[in-house]
Amino acid sequence: MARSYLGLNEEEGLIRGMIRGCMGSVSRLCIIQMQDYLELGACARMNFPGTLSAGNWTWRAPGGFITEELTKRMFDTTRLYGRL
Question: Which of 4, 7, 10, 43 is the most interior residue, by most CB within 10 Å?
């Protein structure tokens, strides 16, 4: 249903399509985790609900992953949807 409702497609990429869908929603607040912008998988989870793991809330962005291209894409999307 999400694919149909949000117009998700392989060309844009599912993650970028989900970000677009969230940014374009009518909600007052939109929070996108850096792991999603970086298109990282489950290996970059920030939290494991229901556990007292020492790894909870300790994720840090790896050096060199935040590029000028990524920050421009984040800025452009945020501006496009009036969320600056």
Answer: 7
